[in-house]
Amino acid sequence: MKVLMLLIDYFLIFSAIFVTDKKIAEFPLFFLVWICTLFRRDKFYKGELASQAGLIILSPLFIRGIFVSSDPSYYYFYFQAICFVNTIPLIFQFLKKYHLKQIIIVSIIFLLITVFGVMEFVLSSGGRGRFIFGPNMTYRVLAFFYGLLLCCLYINDGYKFKFSILFTGSTFVFLIGMLLTGSRGAILVVTIYIVTILLFSKKSKLFINGLIAISVFIAFIVIYNWDVFELIFRRSFYFNIENNSENYRFLKWTMALNFLNDDRVIFGLTNDNNLLSYYPHNIFLELLFYFGLFPLLIFTLGFACYIAKFKDLFILNLIFLGTFVGSLLSGNLQYNYPVISILTVCIFLMFGQKRKFGIY
Q: 190-211, pLDDT tens digit by residue?
């Protein structure tokens, strides 16, 4: 029975992060997931409620466009951000409540299923790897499974990363899956994970040799199967400003500089999308363009608090690394609402203790 409840809680946490803008009969699925997470909570905390109250106070800055928008459902992201705050303590409750080895096993199974799905797609279509989600969401999913697995290994091994067959094997599988997505965001996530692991590891000769062995083995696989990896590596590492993807992102940053001199910069464009014609692929640019300078400054402060609290929120950072990096490179706020929630919590954490937020 406890294993079943573990799977249910695992599914709820995963769904709260990745259900995004999906609906059933025009009702956002996120809110069904959120109601279920409330029933699974053991306790509510003053810090999380204060964070939600802060977001509610700021809501006029974010949802005023809902009444004039041709797509009011876009603004649901803000209600999702408010509600997602309740998922953050559930993650820590989850890690305390169940055996870490059971969470590790479940995470490995989901990681393997996703990577095999990605491999099958690449081999059958020749395109960028994906599984259920698009490539830019697939690497976030892979990072979630791997990040949760790392958390459990980190806690289980005395709050350090140690060399083990389990760590080596899961890291190898994760790296292959991330490479196959052909996403630059995935490469950045992998780089940050490697640096983080090195900084927080017991730097034994065995551990370093294990990382070297993984790198050599992956390099051998890539070279041996270069016909499969060539297109993916070209997409991941070759930058060309003439390319539509690079050009579009560069253009939005240029537009942001010009927008600072626009009369609408204080409150944003709201429903006037003529300037953009498409979302900016960056959470901070999206805040600036659509909601104005004040929300941008608030969540830039939140990002500064996030950096300041990186070590205190280490467990959370391992799990959400893919989501954070992804929010800077792809997706709109309908996909990136967890980042708004976490940055808000980070601001309030500067004035309170972690235990008041259900965080350890």
A: 888 888 887 776 655 555 666 6
